[in-house]
Amino acid sequence: MTQLSLVGVSKIFGSSKVVDRVSVAVEPGKVHVLLGENGAGKSTVIKMMSGIYQPDEGRIEIDGKEVRIPNVDAARRFGIAVIHQELNMVPELSIMENLFLGALPTKGGFVDRATMKCKAREALALIGLNEDVSTPMGALGVARQQMVEIAKALMQDASILILDEPTAALTRKECEQLFSIMADLKAKGVGMVFISHHLDEIARVGDVVTVLRDGQYVGTVPASTPESELVKLMVGRSIENQFPRVAGKPSKVMLKVDGLTRGDEINSVSFEVRAGEVVGLAGLVGAGRTEVIRAIFGADSYDSGSVTVDGKAVPKASIARTIAAGVGLVPEDRRDQGLILDASVAENLGLATMIPTSRMGFIDRGGQRKREKETASKLRIRMASIDQRTGALSGGNQQKAVFGKWSMAKVKVLLLDEPTRGVDVGARVEIYELINEVTAKGGAVLMASSDLPEVLGMSDRVLVMSNGHLSGEMPASEATQEKVMALAVSHMQEAAEPEINENKGEH
After folding, report:
1. How many CA atoms lie within 13 A of 480 on its CB side?
2. N or C end of the chain: which has fewer CB within 10 A?
């Protein structure tokens, strides 16, 4: 089998050295974990491994011989396959067509659709995904789209497999399926690079861990290293409190949802969120959490019910009116729904305040620029400059930019859907501090999350959804994983494997 080594590689963008003399060796039959905060250089390292970037210093070796990997096709010929954090798919094409993008099988000069269908079914069976291969990719949820990406990489029969945040959008059941596949690949001698912000996964799947900080090599340690030591290597300091919730005294009702109903997805859901309060929204995958969040924000309509913000009714299916009422949303999919990736950091930060701060129809460019710089500095967004393209930022820094947009807008109600998905432990704590800041200023936060430790650690009250129903609520001080899970399955029509992430908080 193949050994892939990076020897003293560096990568320079403009005047910034984003990777500085890093060495990593990926051995056959072992899982090499790359660990570091968002912006530490992990993604740049794997892009050099996979032919997307070329190192400016150092060398790449395969089985001890120096090689050049000029592009992705060359990497594939060397037996290197990648499952990227950001999905690489065409929503309008079918699952089958996405699996064969760039490598269509032919027969007699024509596309061999029979072979495509057969191999696509085999690939989905391998990962335990029961979907019709003719289904458009855009019709799948994020988790199932990620599973298709995993199947696509496995189809390449690679000897080196790079997995960049493969579990970020997966349920517990899907994670276990992936880990089982990884164990089989290890037994066959496949070497793997694994990136995850969930520290509990490292000892579960890894053999060794290389830690990067600010683009530099910190050290390589066994995967059995205690989580507290890994965190210290990552961020250069100890983080004692993973969930630094500062609870205040809730005051007036800021958000009232009454009888919200939408088809089979939401069934007469009613609750309140008060100023100064964080309310967690828990439940199984498909329970209706995201649907409730989107309906409140006006992204989706609903059949009946009402939404009231600070005592005033908000019309349904009107994002503009909802924002004007003082509501902000950090969506589940920040890249497609929360940001304009080709716009600058400054432009994204100012999206929600450009019109409200205009004077006599003219944009207050000077004032906006000042506020954008202050917000980026306060949130510690790692960037080359405030004019840098937002799509070039790391995932955690993109998430901070979404938060920053609503921080500038001084929203009354902040809706959060998976607020720390794909975010490292250090940036998580910074995001939790931003949540504290919203409630300290009298705002209200509704947070939907599949990360149960996050819900229990950062909420004042917990609402639990089950099959579109609000099945119960309790103070966070009385909530346990067992109580939440019992409520989460209470409206299920038949027994199902709980698909909630009970263990992805870094303890």
Report:
1. 3
2. C
Cα–Cα dist 112/442, whole Å = 61
Placement of tokens 């990962």 in the chain = 127
Where do the DSSP E strands lie in 362-419?
413-417
For residue 368 the two structure tokens come to 């906006």
CB within 8 Å of 478: residues ≥ 6 apart:
none
Exposed/middle/buried for residue 156 (C-beta within 10 Å: 0-12, 13-18, 19+): middle
- Per-residue tokens: 351: 């999206």
Angle at 35 between CA 183 and CA 380, to 5 degrees: 145
* Residue 96: burial class (beta carbons within 10 Å; 0-12, 13-18, 19+): buried
- Helical pair 142-154 and 113-126, crossing angle rounded to 10 deg: 110
Which residue type, as a one-letter code, is found at position 249? K
**H helices of 236-351, where?**
289-297, 319-324, 345-349
By the 8 A CB rule, do 1 and 14 touch? no
Question: Six-digit token pair at 507?
Answer: 């303890």
State how far the Cα of 403 lies from the Cα of 388, in Å rounded to an integer: 17
Strand boundaries in 114-252, DSSP class E: 160-164, 191-195, 208-213, 216-222
Hey, what are 53's tokens?
């970037």
Residue 124's H or E segment, with its range, is: helix 113-126
Domains of the chain: 4-236 (3.40.50.300), 252-489 (3.40.50.300)
Output the six-digit token pair for 114. 């029979």
Residue keyed to tokens 């596949």: 181
Q: Which tokens is 95 given? A: 């699952």
In angstroms, the first-to-last Cα distance of the chain is 36
Question: Are 461 and 280 within 8 A, CB to CB?
Answer: yes
pLDDT greater at residue 101 or residue 291? 291
Query: Residue 501: pLDDT above 60?
Result: no
Determine the Cα–Cα distance for residues 98 and 136; give it in Å rounded to an integer: 9
